[in-house]
């Protein structure tokens, strides 16, 4: 059976969309005739220390070279020239979203990552991206050939339709608290609609970016929203399912999404959506299922939230469209099939 080595930095069990994608695909590749081995890279990527660079060079040298090497973009985009020179055989880059577009990076670091990401992706024999938007970005900004890329959107598990709560209306946002997720923008928008009766739950890890969490808590306190906005932290799947079930409206204020897996999850449950359109978010949750706002625009987000919360007919229309669209989303089986086809095509 052909073998693929998946090189992934950090803890493969981490509760993020990128790690979930890697896990779910790796679990299913055997169904398509591909054997998988996990190669753990240091967790400091995309900002590796000198020691971690040396460790990466060691593990790359020890791998079985006839295998196809699939490298997660969280690490691959930050590979140094010696790392790229150490790569033998066929290499596939798996890009969830471009590193140089991460929110909050100093300008000099953005330029540095853009350079390293361009060099790394030029070295790759093929690139798997998780959305059409990411393919466009890599084509237009890094001058990469679209023929070198395959889009394999994340799968979405089937789910029951959310019933909601009603009064007060329950708003839900899901995702780790990071600068890119725009929770500070969301709180500023919520502060403009306190005349309405709503409650907000943010379900996502609170240990990924302490400064962003501290700023979010401070904003909630500044606007006296402590009794309305709940930071649920990382929750187990059963608890998250109950939170989805009781939600009346889903919102994403993210400044950039490589795909937006939580948007797909909301659609699978028939939730009306308000979303910022950074990156692929506007493609994932189209205008039929969501009110679209400019990423980072507090006033637009506040207006859209007010519209959705005060117009039940609108919420019902968006919910019905989301439910219908959710039935057409790709499954993880389909995602793994696309990835397997790329791996099998790379065989010597």
In words, what does this structure look like?
With 348 residues, the chain is α/β, with parallel strands linked by helices. It has two domains: 3-155 and 330-345, Glycogen Phosphorylase B (Rossmann fold, 3-Layer(aba) Sandwich), CATH 3.40.50.2000; 169-326, Rossmann fold (3-Layer(aba) Sandwich), CATH 3.40.50.2000. The protein has 14 helices and twelve strands. The chain has a six-stranded parallel beta sheet with strand order 2-1-3-4-5-6, with helices on both faces. Strand 11 (273-276), helix 11 and strand 12 (290-293) form a beta-alpha-beta unit. Helix 7 packs parallel to helix 8.
Produce a short descriptive summary.
The chain is of the alpha/beta class and 348 residues long. It contains 14 helices and 12 strands.
